[in-house]
Amino acid sequence: MLKFILRRILETVPVLLCVAAMTFFMCRLAPGGPFDDDKQVTAEVREQLNKQFNLDKPLYAQFYQYLINLPNLQSFKYPSRTVGDIISQKFPVSAKLGFLAMCIALSIGIMFGVIASLRPNSYIDYIPSSLAMIGICLPTFVMGPLLILVFSLDTLQLESFFIKFGLIDFKNFLNDIGLTWIAALIDFPYPSIGWGGFDGDLFFSSDMILPSLTLGLFYAAYISRLTRGGMLDILTQDYIRTAKAKGASAPRILVIHALRGGLLPVISFMGPAVAGLIAGSFVIETIFNIPGLGQDFVKSAFNRDYTLVLGVVMFYATLIVILNLIVDILQVALNPKLKFQS
Amino acid sequence: MIYRMITGASIGLMSLILVGCGSGENNGDSSEERKILKITVGAEPEDIDPHVVTGVPEHHIIAALTEGLVAEDPLDLHPVPGVAEKWEVSEDGKVYTFQIRENAKWSNGDLVTASDFTKSYKRILTPALASKYAYMLFVMEGAEAYSTGKLKDFSKVGVKAINNRTLQINLNAPTPYFLSLLNHYTWFPVHIATVEKYDGLTKRGSGWTKPENFVGNGPFILKSWQLGRKLVVEKSSTYWDAKSTKLDEIHFFAIELETTQENAFRAGQLHNIYNLHIDKVATYKKEHADELRIKPHLASYFYRFNVNKKPCDDVRIRKALTMAIDRESIVKNVTKGEQMASTFFTPPGVAGYTARARFKEDIGEAQKLLAEAGYPNGKGFPSLELLYNTTEGHRIIAEAIQQMWKKNLNINITLQNQEWKVYLDRQREMDYQISRAGWTGDYPDPNTFLDMWTSWSQQNQTGWADPKYDTLIRKAAITKDPNARLEVFQEAEEILMDQLPIIPIYIYTRVYALHPAVKNWHANVLDHHPWKHIDLDLSLLKK
Predict the structure, then answer these.
(1) Which residues of chain A does B135 touch, with a Cβ-Cβ cutoff of 8 Å?
(2) Residues near B175 by beta carbon (within 8 Å), at least 6 away in sequence
(3) How many whole angstroms separate alpha carbon B396 and alpha carbon B374?
(4) Cβ–Cβ under 8 Å, residues A220 and A100
């Protein structure tokens, strides 16, 4: 296994180099540059700017410079920040959003998928399956504003309901006894923008609920369909019948025997999905104004922020490579038919 | 049984996560009585170094942190004493002597001195810093030569510290808008010792603008700057006029998306909507008239002609195209923000100047001109492409104009949208026939709108040059009598409107919303709001 992992890590080096080269040169091929602006600058100023940001050096020299020193390079758009600054400040936010969304996605998705697979083509299959279909069809840029309308701007007047059932008092009580993170869950109406409270320093706050939910529900829909498919496949296998014949209880069959194989499609899906989730979602971060990395992923390319584009792309590429490796290891662990092969 | 197990497990998992996330911090806001203005000025500021930045969001933030020689009156922005308590202008209007007030201080307690200004101006003009806006200082003697490297000796530049509290600035010519110009951030001082400490004077983006290092002399000091989230400034106690500062803190949120701004405003998380989406204007007029603000803005929306390319090299065609647009219909049915249809270029009422030159919208005349140019009823008209940067708002205007030209002149044009940087690149390389543009004045004077069409201006980008026009703009720069000077601008704009290297379309308005609790906020054409005057009526803020 160690040999397998080492080999895989070595294999990633040329992959990452290729990604870096392609990103770098594609960026440079695009018309326009970081210093183009509404108000055009004189040739002298442009020349000085190029000199300051080393754009006057030959391309290969710049590429080499970027490769060896990327995190310490200045962003073109935000000169007072280095690429490393920006990623290290914004990635934790995106990662937390992704983690919360993933928890929601996995718990809801697997639960719905398993339920649906228990009695295929009955009502307990149709209801979760149709909900999942709706979830897939509703893109996050529709779901997000809808959730904001209902839970943040309170267009359905839910607040009166909260007051009526004493939930507000309950929230204050929870705050008083120090359970602020549970209180945040029912801190209705939820904020429509932000992350980590007013000063952005809370570990869990009510403004995290709507974005996590929007992102989580979207993935939950996929996961539930994958789980259902995987489970249906496994539940008809001979070894399940054997287990039943031996008298194993239904929960034992489901959890110990079936789920292990039934979740394999979900595991393969989760590799790239997790990378996407924690690297940040442009749509969610824009709608809810969350200071995550997803926005830079898109905007840095528009801004021709050469250093930041490369930084964010390389960071994301590395994440994907690592997560794919983890997924491969997990799959071997879960599926006895697979072995580590080099 | 099974279901129960699974739900049980998921709830367990969820609570585990939540317990993991638990922290003992208090959610409640204990400081309800503090006046905290929560505002967005659009995008994330690129930096807050006044000698490096170029944007509007940066302007709003820097105006809170730094103060120049003069300040602005909140009502009409006329220059009032700032760091300088008084000033004198020489007989010929070319020498300004500023008396710096005794109690003007930096946020670290240092006194603001005349040499702070000379050193700051030296910094922004240093070629190695490559300040994009250094040209704002070119009215000063020798500034342009120093900035382009032709002059090496800064003592020959027209700014001198006579003593600690007296600063003398020599101008190339009497410049009636000079005091207004001083309110542009390029003229603001920086704390040189601090800038020097972090990577020197000519390195942009050195650490000096970080909250822990920043030193300013404005009514507010930098408290924190969370990237992509917000920048917080708090009342400065060292500011000379600290007793007038009304707010305790201003939180500048970085929110670009209009709908996100509106959601946050409606949810009570913001006190303004920086740009209200046009689809919402009608609703706000009906339901939230007390929050909606629509004010004229010192900015012009227009199209550029590339006069080097066929068919727009022919002035008759330029005139025909310009005349065959129904601007009233565009502002009424397309842009819908009470913009002013413009048959001139300079927004009216700028420093007493309202353009006399106007062209007529006249379809009959346009058709005649087109026929004269050799295309009767649009027959045989060559292909014509209109370039604009990809934005919904620009697209609908371009489509409306495309329709009008089709209907009025029977010519077909194609629309081409390009991503922002590609569009700018093509405009700079003159790789277009007609291109969309907008121009916001840097200071309230017709010069900021008219000197861009001179043959030497970087902003021209039309290929159009007229020696007579150039002469007039040069003449205006040295004319001392204010009325005679405006008259020269009138003549220049007449030439511009006769030659039409551009198609004026409308004068912008700012369409935004403001919470009624925000007080002393006065609309003005530059959209400047001196922060020390702004107040917040806490009783009007909903809990």
Answers:
(1) 42
(2) B93, B139, B181, B477
(3) 30
(4) no
Say if residue A330's pLDDT is above 90. Answer: no
Strand B70-72 and strand B535-536: the pairing is unpaired
Interface of A with B in 198-237 (CB under 8 A): 198, 200-206
Q: What is the dihedral of CA B261, B263, B267, B269, to 10 degrees?
A: -20
- Distance from C-alpha of A49 to C-alpha of A43, rounded to nearest angstrom: 10
Residues B287, A234: Cα–Cα separation, whole Å: 58
Instruction: Give mean pLDDT, residues B433-450.
Output: 93
User: Residue A268: what pLDDT?
Assistant: 84
Cis-peptide, bond into residue B45, ω within 30° of zero: no
The residues with which B72 forms a beta bridge, in sequence order, are: B79
Contacts (Cβ under 8 Å, ≥6 apart) of A178: B24
Angle between helices A123-137 and A209-235 (to 10 degrees): 130
Query: φ, ψ for residue A74 (rounded to 5)?
Result: -70, 145
* Residue B296 main-chain phi, psi, to 5 deg: -60, 150
Q: In terms of DSSP bridges, do strands B414-418 and B385-389 run parallel, antiparallel, or are they unpaired?
A: parallel
DSSP B74: T
The answer to whether the beta carbons of residues A40 and B461 sit under 8 Å apart is yes
Sign of CA dihedral A188, A193, A196, A198: negative
A292 reaches B (C-beta below 8 A): yes
Q: What is the mean pLDDT of residues A244-267?
A: 87
In B, minimum Cα distance to A249 occurs at B2
Strands B340-341 and B502-514: antiparallel
Amino acid identity for residue A212 in this structure: S
The answer to which of A286-295, B4-13, B69-78 has the lowest mean pLDDT is B4-13
Contact B295, B509 (CB under 8 A): yes
pLDDT for the residue numbered B23: 38
Strands B340-341 and B79-81: unpaired
Per CB-CB distance under 8 Å, the chain A contacts of B149 are 44
pTM value?
Answer: 0.90
> What CA–CA distance (Å, rounded) separates B323 from B307?
17
Amino acid A5 reads: I
Q: Write the pLDDT tens digit of every residue in B134-147.
A: 999 999 999 999 99
User: Would you say residue A335 has pLDDT above 80?
Assistant: no
User: Rounded to an integer, what distance in angstroms lies between the CA atom of residue B537 and that of residue B516?
Assistant: 8
Question: Cα(B403)–Cα(B395) distance, rounded to whole angstroms?
Answer: 12
Tell me how far apart the alpha carbons of residues B390 and A290 are, in angstroms, rounded to a whole number: 24
Burial pattern B137-175, b for ≥16 Cβ within 10 A else e, equals: bbbbbbbbbbbbeebeebeebbbbbeeebebbbbbbbbb
**Alpha carbon of A181: minimum distance to chain B alpha carbons (Å):** 5
Rounded (10°) CA dihedral A113, A119, A124, A129:
40
Tokens of B412: 């077909």
Helix runs in B99-241, H state only = 114-125, 143-147, 178-181, 192-197
- Neighbouring residues of B536: CB distance < 8 A, sequence distance ≥ 6: B35, B36, B37, B246, B247, B271, B517, B518, B519
Q: How far apart are the C-alpha atoms of B257 and B260, rounded to whole Å?
A: 5
Chain A residue with the nearest C-alpha to that of B2: A251
Predicted ipTM of the assembly:
0.90
Q: Which two tokens stand for residue A265?
A: 């499609």
Tokens of B143: 């500034």
Residue B32: its pLDDT value, please?
Answer: 57
Say whether pLDDT at A9 is over 90.
no
Q: How far apart are alpha carbons B154 and B157 in whole angstroms?
A: 5
Distance separating alpha carbons of residues A146 and B37, to the nearest angstrom: 28
A270: helix, strand or coil: helix
Which chain B residues touch A81 with a CB distance below 8 Å?
A: 205, 227
